[in-house]
Amino acid sequence: MSARYFVRLKLRLLANGLRGRTQRVTLFVIGAVMAAAAAVSGYALFSVIGVLGEQRAAEVVFPLTGSAIVLGWLFLPLIIFGVDESLDPARFALLPLRHVTLVRGLFAASLVGVPAIATFAATLGMVHAAATLGGFFAATVELVGLTGGILLCAALSRAVTSAFATALRSRRSRDLATVALAGSAALLGPLQLGLRSAIERADWQGIGHVVDVLAWTPLGAPYSMGLDVAAGRLWAVPIKIVVVGATIALLLWWWSGSLEKAMLGAKSGSRERAASQRTPVDQLVPRWLPRNRFGALAGREMRYWWRETRRRATLISFVAVALFLPVLVAVSGGPAGASGAVLVFVAALAAVSLTNQFGFEGSAYAANVVAGVPGRVELAARATGLSVYVLPPLLVISVVASVVPGRGAAAPALIGTVLAAYGVALAVAMPISVRAAYALPDSTSPFAMSSGGGTAKGLLSFAALIGATIATAPLQIGAWLLGDVWLWIGLPVGIAYGAGAFVLGLRIAAPMLDDRMPELLATVSAGSQ
Predict the structure, then answer these.
(1) What is the pLDDT of residues 115-155, one digit of tens each?
(2) Burial tier of 117 (Cβ tally within 10 Å: 0-12, 13-18, 19+)
(3) Which one in 137, 163, 285, 483 has a CA-CA gap of 20 to 30 Å to 328?
């Protein structure tokens, strides 16, 4: 069976999908116009470099941009919940087609579409630039490279989405994609500021060396062949052709191997048997948690923070701030103590999410009241559920904020300060969550707040944030006074300081919760009545 039948099927399905559907036609036209504009802009950008005769600029821009294009073809299908349904291998499960025929046909059909055409048209500006810099032969070689590049993009996208086809259909993976997309959107503004600062302070000579290496990888090799001809490096062209061709062949082989599983849309038998043998307790409580009341509550909190809309919105906002502020300070070359102060603020901000932890549940908190869960167990489990999500980003950002400005030796001490700030903030937030809880309204918006006094109640979180930041001041002063000695003792001292503060806050808040369970339930249930 020829691949042209798959192409015709793709075009027929596209035409039938647009027939009689004005809204879909409008969206398709808008998308095509935007793709055309992107293609024209890309062509102009690449060709201008050649017209200006900037050989070295082209050797940096072409492989770097080409790598970004390949990575875009890798990640964008995952972010937007999968691939074009007309190319879903599961649709061909009942047809007597060989894997080779199916792979060849689906691969050809994947090249017929607005994304592939727009990508190829935009990169044709590289051919124009190669012709200007190296003549007809350089342009021909660059065209061969671009053809390999678009084939590489399509093969990579098909192989990855086929391998994860089953996972992409599950609700859990769609939740993950939603979080990733929302987090990416929240970071667009901060990333622009950080990128601008990085460009102003960048070491372009060092970047050029990195791009030279990138041009020999499958990511950048397809887009640098014509420039090799223009520079007289004819020997490099066949090597890069082999690199690109072997990568495409390897991806198609991987795709062929995973195609049957994608068509069936099922997990492997061993994993199914393992899942069927898991008890309800095993499914709720992670293996690293104890099999008792604390473990069950902590496991439940972990699920709630991941699945409940309001909590997820809080996590997304925290991750956006945690990634943006410390990295921006480090890249902008601030003073040595600036990153530490910012990270203390970020750590306190993470824990302040618990200042209204009972308000997230509303009337569902009645189950815990009826079960008579001790306040100590309740508060410790809730803190554990949040910590699973916020501590890893805090640790990673602490290391990055130390290594980027060249102060890697200060990373352990900075981690200790961050853990201390987080523990202190938990200690401050727990009593507030018991004494000053408020109900959240039933709303589809994850950022909705109750009307009437909402601002005053929100000030409690701000007060907790400031209080936690101030309570960590002794560590900041100690770091300033002790100098290099703090680099050795900062981590254990910070851990002890944060743990001690958390235990103290728990001892204060737990009896309060034991005494106020009915009143707390009535308060947080008001919004759902």
Answers:
(1) 888 889 999 988 988 888 888 898 899 999 999 999 998 88
(2) middle
(3) 483
369-379 pLDDT, tens per residue?
A: 888 888 899 89
Spatial contact of 384 and 314, defined as CB atoms under 8 Å apart: no
What distance in Å separates the CA atoms of residue 440 and residue 525, rounded to the nearest whole number?
8
- Please compute Rg for the chain using Cα positions: 28
Question: How many Cα atoms occupy the beta-carbon half-sphere of 32 within 13 Å?
Answer: 7
**Per residue in 404-431, pLDDT tens?**
666 667 778 888 888 888 899 899 888 8
Instruction: Tell me the DSSP string of 324-392.
Output: HHHHHHHHTT--HHHHHHHHHHHHHHHHGGGGGTTTTTGGGGHHHHHHT--HHHHHHHHHHHHHHHHHH
- Compute the average pLDDT of residues 18-36: 77
Residues 262 and 161: their CA atoms lie apart, in Å, by 9
Q: DSSP letters of 234-264?
A: TTHHHHHHHHHHHHHHHHHHHHHHHHHHHHH
- CA-based nearest residue to 491, from 402, 425, 389: 402
Residue 232 has phi, psi (to 5 degrees) of 85, 10
Classified as helix, coil or strand, 285 is coil
Q: How many whole angstroms separate alpha carbon 193 and alpha carbon 146?
A: 32
Cα–Cα distance measured from residue 507 to residue 366, given in angstroms and rounded to the nearest whole number = 23
**83 pLDDT exceeds 70?**
no
CB 477 within 8 A of CB 420: no
**Cα dihedral sign, 412-417-423-429:** negative
Rounded average pLDDT over 155-174 = 64
Neighbours of 1 (CB within 10 A): 13
Which pLDDT band holds residue 338 (cuts at 50, 70, 90)? low
Q: What share of the chain is helix, strand, coil (3-state, %, to 5)?
A: 80, 0, 20
Q: Which two tokens stand for residue 373?
A: 């869960």
CA distance 14 to 4: 15
Residue % of the chain over a pLDDT of 90: 6
Alpha helix locations (H) across 164-292? 165-168, 171-200, 204-214, 225-230, 236-264, 269-276, 280-284
List C-alpha distances in Å: 224 to 37, 73, 117, 233, 466: 24, 19, 20, 11, 53
Place of tokens 């020999």: 216
